[in-house]
Design goal:
Elements (H helix, E strand, L loop, with lengths): L1 H23 L6 H10 L8 H15 L4 H16 L1 H7 L3 H12 L15 H10 L3 H5 L5 H29 L2 H24 L5 H7 L15 H7 L4 H7 L11 H16 L4 H17 L5 H18 L24 H4 L15 H11 L49 H7 L2 H4 L19 H12 L1
Helix pairs in contact: 3-6, 4-5, 6-10, 9-12, 9-14, 9-15, 10-14, 10-16, 14-15, 14-16
Length: 463
């Protein structure tokens, strides 16, 4: 029974968060809404990044060897997606990721005469100088099917799946600013890595195992490396086909597998701190897998990790630092919600049943996740406190016009669920000094001054 409850509760929470996330989406399909927002947008210097994106995308589309119709449809479809509000809320933040993918797949069409000569000896030499040995070569000397599976799961599966999982959890449980941050950091990091690989092409360890240290050229096709054992294990040829037709054969440095794993670990640990040791444990396994499968040297792994750390902290906005990183998706202001009990520094009452949460906690959850609106009874408008009559055990004579004979409040003024709670929050000892306490059972009249005291007071004022 406990196991079932353990599984059902997280699923219910994810389901409720999904419903709330869908409710927060802009469901408008009118391009005029997007055009109006564009007219009202206050342009800043940071918007110049869109000029860079358009320029680079135009270059890749120009060299792309595809029918003119296809090359024209790519920007047209993307522009239509940006015009419709419902799709633009996804496609506009994902622009850096789309630009990275376009750069990666179009890079093979760069003319050979404009490409630098691939380096074969630089990376293994740097690894031996910096770390005292060829670490990646040591890790590949012993292989086993169990180790192959252990390396394949993060390198051949997790690398392509986990970015979507990270984006989904941020979308469900964190503000939209965090999702935009993920798109920018992940996209620009990978784009920068591809540009470095194009300007600084280096051979991977599998090249050294197959061809030795002979000079490389762009006629050489890619290799699946250790993933060929996975194809053999599953009687398939998926990885062999994919890596043999890779558009970027000499892209060993920096390792984008290591960069992606580091970025994922940084994001998850920042926005979900309770998972820190697990996500960095996964990243460590992937670091090992990149070298065990002969796709990267250790220096590539270090370079990719440094690239991820740089872009994470370079693009991390101020409003997502500190406690705001764990703010619910209702908005960054939701984290600053204070209940009436916190305002008056009083202990929050708890329900009678076990595990029942206080009203303040429920209100914070409802406000944070937008899971439901308040009921009709709870959503009444706030009334001015001067019209609220506390329910007192004894009826003072001054409250007779406001209270019926049966002890209920007069229907002249609309009742409210906070009528008695506000009065109970004000401490009787604080209000007793003023002569009347709503908590007490009597009304204390201040003593009437005598004529001598009154004359004395007038004389003091005249002097």
């Amino acid at each position: 029974m406990n196991v079932q409850a353990t599984l059902v509760q997280p699923l219910r929470r994810v389901g409720a968060a999904f419903v709330a996330a869908v409710g927060r989406l802009d469901k408008s399909l009118s391009p005029s809404d997007t055009l109006n927002r564009l007219k009202q947008h206050k342009w800043a210097f940071s918007d110049a990044i869109y000029i860079f994106q358009i320029s680079l995308a135009t270059f890749w589309l120009f060299i792309l060897q595809a029918p003119a119709f296809v090359k024209l449809m790519i920007p047209v479809l993307y522009a239509l997606a940006l015009l419709i509000p419902f799709t633009s809320q996804f496609f506009l933040p994902a622009g850096p990721i789309f630009l990275y993918l376009l750069s990666f797949f179009s890079s093979k069409y760069i003319p050979v005469e404009y490409r630098p000569t691939p380096s074969v000896v630089l990376l293994p030499t740097l690894e031996s100088v910096l770390y005292g040995a060829n670490v990646s070569d040591i890790l590949t000397r012993f292989t086993h099917p169990i180790l192959d599976i252990l390396a394949w799961v993060p390198y051949g599966v997790g690398h392509y799946v986990i970015p979507f999982i990270v984006a989904a959890f941020i979308w469900l449980f964190r503000p939209k600013e965090a999702l935009h941050f993920w798109s920018s950091a992940f996209g620009y990091m990978n784009l920068t890595g591809v540009l470095i690989q194009l300007v600084f092409p280096c051979a991977a360890p599998w090249y050294e195992l197959i061809y030795g240290l002979t000079p490389a050229d762009y006629t050489i096709r890619g290799s699946p490396g250790g993933l060929a054992r996975i194809d053999k294990l599953f009687h398939s040829s998926g990885y062999t086909t994919a890596f043999s037709n890779s558009p970027l054969v000499f892209g060993a440095f920096p390792s984008l597998h290591a960069a992606a794993a580091t970025m994922e670990a940084l994001f998850i640990s920042h926005f979900f701190p309770q998972t820190t040791k697990w996500v960095f444990g996964y990243a460590a396994v992937l670091y090992w897998a990149t070298m065990y499968l002969t796709h990267h040297y250790l220096v590539d792994v270090v370079g990719g990790s440094c690239l991820a750390v740089t872009f994470f902290y370079l693009l991390l906005p101020e409003e997502l630092k500190g406690a705001a990183a764990t703010a619910p998706p209702g908005g960054l202001a939701a984290a600053s919600y204070r209940s009436k009990y916190e305002v008056y520094d009083l202990e929050e009452p708890r329900g009678r049943g076990r595990g029942t949460r206080g009203n303040g906690t429920i209100m914070r959850d409802a406000e944070a996740y937008d899971l439901e609106e308040l009921s009709d009874r709870e959503s009444d408008e706030e009334m001015d406190i001067t019209f609220r009559s506390p329910v007192v055990p004894e009826q003072p004579s001054s409250a007779v016009p406001l209270i019926k004979s049966n002890g209920r409040a007069s229907p002249v003024k609309k009742s409210h669920r906070h009528t008695a709670s506000i009065a109970s929050l004000i401490r009787s000892e604080d209000r007793g000094e003023e002569g009347w306490s709503p908590i007490g059972g009597s009304f204390a009249f201040p003593p009437t001054p005598t004529r001598a005291q009154a004359d004395e007071g007038k004389g003091a004022r005249g002097s």
